[in-house]
C-alpha cells in the first residue's frame, strides 16, 4: 500500500482539552490562566480579618454570618461568665474552610476590651502594636538567608470597625481610632445592629459619618488613591457612596416563603440578613469575599506592609551607619562582667527590633 493510501489515525484527545489545530496563529499563552488556577487551588488562600468594636455590637455573630459557620472566638470558646478585661486583649482563632474545592485558611482576630472602659485614652495602641508585630514577623522571615518557600502570612488584611447605632455622629474614640489605623491597615466601617434605626435615621447617620470621615482625613477601604483604572474607579465609587455599611447579623435559620434564610424574627416580621431591602450585609459580604478579597490582600502587601518595610530598613541602615566600625561593642557576660566583642550587623542586615513603631505617614 502506498503512503498516500495508508489510513490516517488522529492522535487521541484528552477529555476536556481544547483543540486549536485549525487555528494556525494559536500559540497557547492563554493556558497560563489555567496553570495559575491549578496552582492556586493546590496552595489554598489565607485571609486575616480583625474585628474591632465595643462589647455587645454583634461582632462574633456577624463573622459567623459572613462565613456561615462558627468562626468567631466566642463560638468556639463559649464563656458565659466572661468579664470585661482590664486591658485590650488580642485574641485570634484560625479555621480551614473549603468550598467547591477551594481551600482557605481564615483567621479572625478579636479585640475584647476595646471601648468598654470609662477611660479609653490610647486604647488603639495595643491594636496598632499587634498589626505592626505581624508586619515585623513577616519582614524577619522575608529577609532570612534561608527563608521558607512560602512565608506564613499573619498580616492583618482587613479591619472591620463596628460603629454603635446611635444615629447621631461618630464618637471621638471612633474618629481617633480610624484616623490612626487607616494608615496601617484596610479599614471597613460598619454600622452595627442597623435594625435598631429607621430608614431615615440610617440614611442620615451614614451621610453624617461620610462627612466626618472626609473632614478628619480618614481614608477607609477602598481608598481612592489606589484605584487602578477608570473601571475600578467606577466600581469603587459606588462602594464608597454606601460606606459605612448598615448591617444586621444572625446565624439563626428560618423558613420564609418556603426558602431557608438567615434572619432575626420579631413580632412584626423577619429581618432577612441577605435581603438588600432589609440591610446592607450582602454588600459587605460581596466586598470582603466575592469581589475585592484579592485586592484587599494586594493593598496590604504592596502598600501598608511595604511602607512598614521601607521604614524599618531605613531605620536599620541609619542604626548601622551611626555605629563606628573600628570600635568593639561591649556586651555583658553571664556573670555580669563586660565582654568585648567586635560589632557586626546581623546576617539579614536588619537590626533586632525592641519596640514596634507605628508607620503613620
Automatic annotation (TrEMBL):
Septin-type G domain boundaries: 43-315
One example GO MF annotation: GTP binding
CDD domains xrefs: CDC_Septin
Comp. bias intervals (Polar residues): 319-328
GO biological process: cell division
Subcellular location: Cytoplasm, Cytoskeleton
Region of interest (Disordered), ranges: 1-20, 319-361
Entries under SUPFAM superfamilies matching the protein: P-loop containing nucleoside triphosphate hydrolases
Highest taxon in the source lineage: Eukaryota
Keyword annotations from UniProtKB, A to Z: Cell cycle, Cell division, Cytoplasm, Cytoskeleton, GTP-binding, Nucleotide-binding
The protein's name: Septin
Native source organism of the sequence: Notothenia coriiceps
Organism placement in taxonomy: Eukaryota, Metazoa, Chordata, Craniata, Vertebrata
Underlying gene: LOC104947985
